[in-house]
UniProtKB/TrEMBL annotation:
GO terms for molecular function: oxidoreductase activity. Transmembrane segments: none annotated. PROSITE patterns: THIOREDOXIN_2. It comes from Solirubrobacter phytolaccae. It holds the Pfam family Redoxin. This is Redoxin family protein. InterPro entries: Redoxin, Thioredoxin-like_sf, Thioredoxin_10, Thioredoxin_domain, Thioredoxin_ResA/DsbE_sf. Signal peptide: none annotated.
Amino acid sequence: MLAAFDDASVWLNSPPLRSAELRGRVVAVDFWTYSCVNWLRTLPYVRAWQERYAAAGLVVVGVHAPEFGFEHASDNVRDAIATLDAPYPVVIDNEFAIWRAFGNRYWPALYLLDGDGRVRFSHFGEEAYEESERAIQTLLGVDGELVQVRADDVSLAADWGALKSPETYLGGTRGERRVDADALALNQWRLGGDWSVGEESATLASPGGSIAYRFEARDVNLVLAADTPVPFTVRLDGKPPDDAAGVDVDETGAGVLSAPRMYQLIRQADAAWQRTFEITFAGPGVHAYVFTFG
């Protein structure tokens, strides 16, 4: 599997790491894509493991395998690495060659390789942080207390007990539960205005377009991109979000779509219940990809 790194030409945060350099080392291979909320919630742990165990011989390699078109651009990935503080080596896997070599199917996915390049542990998705770190310690032959991680903002773990809304794609390939009715049932959504729906995303052609979603969760996130910065306004049950505003809006619901990424638009402090979220864009050229919840 390590041989898959030998043909990779684009590395960030590091010169290319080849299989000969990695043999004899414990390698944590983390498959990710930067707009994925599930990966964002694992990042503080991966970062902490790199900081704690690098001196003991651990090498963390982030394999960036893009889900959406804008994630193929190395400059976008480079910006995300800087903004999110992912300080370890990252290899760009736009053609999914490393992904296929590992037989991977998930974002995020963690594989721990021993000094011979054999997979000794794997975990897919979030959680299992204690189990993963204990596996790192075992392979390194070290012991000790587990890292203490402070996760907040977009990295805060989902409120799984209150989460009743699933990941929802807005593009035509995987989009579902879209309706035209004014009244929305739980997990239904609608587009308002001049939108066209492509395979990956819904694209807004003129100002004033909106997206509404009836959800039940603590957080509402939306992956967005635009050709130029576009101001937007968020409403929760028709009102400004106030103290339920996410990190990318203020209490009045105002925000700006600038970089292509995931935007956290709602974070509620109180218990979640069914509510209607709506976002309205002041300009055209918006591409809306997927809702995620926490």
